[in-house]
Specification:
Elements (H helix, E strand, L loop, with lengths): L1 H17 L3 H12 L4 H7 L8 H38 L18 H15 L3 E2 L5 E3 H4 L26 E3 L5 H9 L4 E10 L11 E11 L4 H16 L5 E8 L2 E10 L16 E10 L1 H6 L8 E8 H9 L5 H5 L2 H4 L3
Parallel strand pairs: 1-4
Antiparallel strand pairs: 2-3, 4-5, 5-9, 6-7, 7-8, 8-9
The structure holds phenylalanine.
Phenylalanine binds next to strand 8 and strand 9.
């Protein structure tokens, strides 16, 4: 029996030492220490021993069991360590491989110009508003004093969604004047940039979609002098000190009096060239004092309050700001053009 135990121990320790997979180790455990295992089988013979022999043999059997259990534990740890090692190797990352360079873009020149415009007006206490491009004709026209039959409402000029011409793509940002009057407490100082749509063919100065920035002030004792002062400041901040502006009388249904503001051409300094079509001036915006009818429709008393408004073309402003000759360059997204800014 002593010999049997010694054999089991030798054989088992060698087998545990050589094992290379957790499943195989488990099989070995069953083979030696399981209910029907070899060690158990030997222990079952203990009953046949004499009372003197039993304690010594029992102690020996226990030693063998402990030795086997320790060996199994050691083998399990070895397998675990090997598995970890293999995983680390498989998931190894070569940090010396050169990376892919990320090409970093930048803001479109038109949005850079818009950021500058926002900064200038926010600095004067204006709030920046956002509004819908799909607009009610009521706000785009009626509430702006352009009644049914007004030439600007023609189907050949605007994009309508329905036969009754009640819903449209806004043709100007001016409905934002009305939205501000309807929702904000007086006094009001806002600008509202955004896209507008008109049925125009694309050429060097026209596009069926373009951007405007609307501006409006309503307060007590507001005059045309405030309008001119603000717009001259805008021109100097955007285009540099000493920028020359010109105000020409004009007509809009929602302002009275109305004007257009030009800035002297950046290409020729006023002499006349292809960029300004020989005029020497570039038209930048329409403006005027808010018509009393428009105030009244918004339930604002024109005897107590007055205001001015302007609407400027953002593409044109960016063209003047960055000396760009053709409007189409702004929309084409040609990287060779955009990289210059
Ligand atoms: N909405 C006018 C246009 O699109 C511009 C404008 C705005 C004029 C505000 C006066 C006051 O031409």
């Amino acid at each position: 029996m002593k010999e049997q135990l010694a054999n089991i121990k030798r054989e088992a320790l060698a087998a545990f030492e050589a094992v290379d997979a957790p499943a195989a180790l488990d099989e070995l455990r069953v083979k030696y220490l399981g209910k029907k295992g070899q060690l158990t089988a030997v222990l079952k013979q203990m009953g046949r021993l004499s009372a003197e022999e039993r304690p010594a043999m029992g102690a020996l059997a226990n030693d063998v069991r402990t030795a086997l259990e320790n060996a199994i534990e050691a083998a399990a740890q070895k397998l675990e360590a090997a598995a970890l090692e293999a995983r680390l190797k498989a998931e190894a990352l070569d940090v010396t491989v050169p990376g892919k360079t990320v090409r970093r873009g930048h803001k479109h020149p038109m949005y850079r110009a818009l950021d500058e415009i926002k900064d200038i007006f926010v600095g004067m206490g204006f709030t920046v508003l956002d509004g819908p491009e799909i607009e009610l004709a009521e706000l785009n026209f009626d509430r702006l004093n352009a009644e049914e039959g007004h030439p600007s409402r023609d189907w050949s000029d605007s994009f309508y969604f329905d036969q009754d011409a009640r819903v449209m793509l806004r043709s100007q940002t001016s409905p934002m004047q009305v939205r501000a009057m309807d929702t904000m407490p007086l006094p009001i100082r806002i600008i509202a940039p955004g896209r507008v749509y008109r049925k125009d063919e694309i050429d060097a100065t026209h596009s069926p979609m373009f951007h405007q920035v609307e501006g409006m002030v309503i307060d007590k004792n507001v005059t045309m002098a405030d309008l001119k002062g603000t717009l001259n400041l805008l021109a100097e901040e955007l285009f540099g000190k000493g920028t020359v502006t010109r105000f020409r009388p004009h007509h809009f249904p929602f302002t009275e009096p109305s004007c257009e503001m030009d800035v002297q051409c950046h290409k020729c300094g006023g002499a006349g060239c292809p960029t300004c079509k020989g005029e020497g001036w570039i038209e930048l915006l329409g403006a005027g004092m808010i018509h009393p009818n428009v105030l009244r429709m918004a339930h604002i008393d024109p005897e107590e309050w007055s205001g001015w408004a302007f609407g400027m073309g953002l593409e044109r402003t960016a063209m003047r700001r960055f000396k760009i000759a053709d409007l189409r360059l702004i929309f084409e997204n040609d990287a060779r053009f955009l990289e210059q800014f």
